[in-house]
Amino acid sequence: MTDLHHATDAVLLQCWRQDRNAEAFAELVHRYSALTYTACRRVLGSDGQAEEVAQECFLALAALHPKNARSLGAWLHRVATNRAINRLRSESRRRHREDAFARTRPHADTVSWDDLQPHIDAAINALPDRLRGPIVLHFLEGKSHQECAAVLGIPRTTLSSRIARGVDEIRAHLGRKGITLSALLLTELLANAKAGATPPLLTAALGKLALSGPPAAASFIPFSIPFAATRVLLPLLLLGLGAGFAFNRYTTHNAPPAPDATPVIVSTAAPGTPQPSPATIPATPAQQTPQSPITAPPDPPADSRPLADGFARIHGHIRSTADLPVERIQIDVSNGAGFQGGGAALTDAGGNYAIDVEPAPLYYVAARRSSPDLRTAETVLETVEAGRHYRVDLVAYAGEVSGVVVNAAGQALPEAQIMAAPVTPWHFGLPTARANAAGRFTVQGLHASAFKFHVQLGEGDWRDVNTSIELAANETVQGLRLVYPDLVGRTIAGIVVDPDGQPIDHARVEAHLLPGYTNTDSAWSGPDGTFMIEGLEEGEYLLQTAHRAYSSIGGNRVTAGSDSCTLVMAPRGGIEGAVVDAVTRRPIPRFEVYRAVPVSDSHPDSVQWDWHPEENAQGHFTVTDLPQGEFNLAVRATGYVEGKIPVTVAAGQTLSDLLVALKPGTPLRGEVVDTQGEAVVGALLFDGPLPDAHDRDRLAVAKSGAQGHFEIAAFDPALKQLTAWHYNYTHTIVPVNTVDAPLNVVLDPGARITGQVLHNGAPVEGASLSLLLDFTGATPRPLAGTRTDGDGRFILEHAPREGATLVAALPKSQPDDDEWTQCLALSLGEAKDRELTVQFQDYDTALRIAVTADGKAQPGLYYTLAQAGDPAFYYNGHTSSSGHIDVTGLPPGAWQLALYPAPAPGVSTVETLNVDLREGEDMEEELAY
């Protein structure tokens, strides 16, 4: 007998179509009723009409052929959106909505999901099938990338690319309606679109539909008749078979009351085991409230779903401070590097949620209202392991601050944005609000904390208004008056043009005060290319300019008060070429190109690198919007080894006829285990060095699944080795001697390093420590990091046995202070634990260097002072406003000074200087270049 709860959609439809299996149809209702109803509700804006149209959709589903069930969620979303739009058209409402929206045109930074939902659903509906399916599965059904790829039968990398392409298409669709959103904001809005709970009346009606008998019952209703008539006919159609099947498991239940004033409850349990009493995470001072004895609330209903291999589940509920469930509040789960491996979900009517995540050493779990501007509660969940369930219950806070924002003359500032910035860490964004025409604002959803307030006018920078308050839990503060400071001071003005002298509109020009780059102001160029940055203090500034269609430029040094700066931006270039088989020289029609896509309209030079699919019978591809310079073009295709081709892109030109020849690869299988022989799930494998943390998911060639097994479809035997990594182990380089036998990868948990940082014999709080791999190479790889506590103590886990460097840096008292760092090469051998003392000592020395060019002092140049040895020391900072480097307290010995033209090294060295510093010496030097 078929296990219907785990059957595919096609099997369920087949059971319904052939055998009229009511339980099969009920399972489909259970899976998709919430998605269908939510899509209808977003377009129609009416609960009653949404229920009616949702019933229409499932009547159509009852007649659907199983061959169309591969992405049933996408099919139902399309049917729901089309029928809902038709309903609006029949009542002359859609044009009214679009005209009203076009008149108001809310600002893209503050537009909410409620404003845009009908338009976004229509945009999803307009996508081609291959893009609509991934978008619906991931955002509307809330499935992870791995689950979506399994449903669609495509590689996970292809799935990620299609989701990215789908988001781009939705943005373009909205743009044609005059709605401009950044990709980042649109992605956040889509994350809000996950289906909520199905209304009980609709659930009951659809449950009866499962009992409606022969196929004709679902197909004889003429859908051209007004649905008011079908609303009467449908109950009559469902009366014939009685109540022979129980539908109770699909009804919505509210969770029983939770204990009073329990800020956060977290517990873990392996699937199928009794859940222990939850442990309470210690509340932050801002969250602490008198508490009743803690008892474990029942598991949310969603926790009964099967858990996919290699995943964990974070679930729980959120309640108000009045102990009532909070419906349709968004839960965000992030691992600190964005939502990779995490996700988002809306709570149901009982305040319950469940999100399946990939294992990670740390997750932030936060709740917020449907608007991305309203934050509520947050906690941290450590060491999330595959196959386990983690219970996180949150309390939604309801603090509120309202008032008026004015300028120094007391005039109201309409449309100003107000930000409440808590003094405690906040990982998901800051609570904001927009003032109305009278300058009045209300910031909601604030937790108990101290807040500072910032104000933004138009597209300018956020400015501190020197106002702060401290909120108790759920406190309301009214009548707050925020005074936006006058932009007194100097200005920098000029024009942004292309190489032909034509003005460039909407270029972002940033001015960074030298030295230190800690004071930044900005402005946007207008249609005539002119810009003006106001409110600057005296001094020299470094200008940096960015635009979506031009290569970013930097290095323009001007003095405050300059009014004739000309900034010339070169247009971006491109590449055209073809991908062929290196052996047969035949075109490869399907492949992926690793390229950058801008992710922020407010910062045009901010990009996200990812794989993007290409399909062309001749293997042709075109990559546009590339900044000028040198980089490696990466291309991959199924069955081939990834190819990397060095290319040089010229400004405004397209590099043509590039031929990328991919070498066929060999399948390689294996398993990943620990030193005890136990399978390791979720280990990443790379065909090169260990990438930086934010690139590991995208650049992995394989990931170990159940029982630790992995498979690389196309491995290059000439590489002779792989790199394996898992967050609970140290990385390892694995030799590959043959591809004919499974590869056995053994991961070592590594060593645990503990110790203390001292400065002149006293413990240092807040010193930063990092483990770097291959520190002496051109691109050191950070493995782990931490800071010292009040006693100067630190702990670093999973350190490699060899080939790593411990880097310790003393904390800065001011952001623009110079930084003193110590580097210690590690050789841990077989030791499981290592205790270290990192000592900094001030000496009676001074090094004073005057830096000039053409006889002029050079402020703001980045420099490093390095001393070889073990431990090695280096000191880094910027030349002062007078162009000097003044460093005291350095250890005696040989030092090398290096000057760089940019805020950070990595471009080219301007000049070097070697000095031999003796104890008690006060050395003065001049460096002219």
Describe the protein.
This protein is of the alpha+beta class and about 950 residues long. The chain contains 14 helices and 53 strands. Helix 2 packs across helix 11 and helix 7 packs across helix 9.
Question: Which key features would you list for this structure?
Answer:
929 residues, alpha+beta, eight-stranded antiparallel sheet, globular
Rounded average pLDDT: 75
Share of residues in strands? 35-45%
Integer-rounded radius of gyration: 30 Å
Distance between the termini: 83 Å
Short description:
This protein has 929 residues and is an alpha+beta fold.
Write the layout of secondary structure elements.
Blueprint: H1 9-19, H2 22-44, H3 47-61, H4 72-90, H5 94-104, H6 113-125, H7 129-140, H8 145-152, H9 156-176, H10 183-191, H11 200-209, H12 216-219, H13 227-237, E1 264-269, E2 279-280, E3 312-320, E4 330-334, E5 343-346, E6 352-357, E7 360-368, E8 375-384, E9 389-396, E10 399-407, E11 417-422, E12 432-434, E13 440-446, E14 450-456, E15 463-470, E16 476-484, E17 490-497, E18 508-513, E19 520-524, E20 530-536, E21 540-547, E22 550-559, E23 565-568, E24 573-581, E25 590-598, E26 607-615, E27 620-626, E28 629-636, E29 643-649, E30 654-662, E31 666-674, E32 684-686, H14 696-699, E33 702-703, E34 709-715, E35 721-725, E36 732-735, E37 743-747, E38 751-759, E39 762-763, E40 768-773, E41 781-787, E42 793-799, E43 804-809, E44 819-826, E45 833-840, E46 846-853, E47 856-857, E48 862-867, E49 872-878, E50 884-888, E51 893-900, E52 911-917, E53 922-928
Parallel strand pairs: 3-9, 10-16, 17-23, 24-30, 31-37, 38-45, 46-53
Antiparallel strand pairs: 1-2, 1-9, 3-6, 4-5, 4-7, 7-8, 10-13, 11-12, 11-14, 14-15, 17-20, 18-19, 18-21, 21-22, 24-27, 25-26, 25-28, 28-29, 31-34, 32-33, 32-35, 35-36, 38-39, 38-42, 40-41, 40-43, 43-44, 44-49, 46-47, 46-50, 48-49, 48-51, 51-52
Helix pairs in contact: 1-2, 2-3, 2-4, 2-6, 2-11, 3-4, 3-11, 4-6, 4-7, 6-9, 7-8, 7-9, 8-9
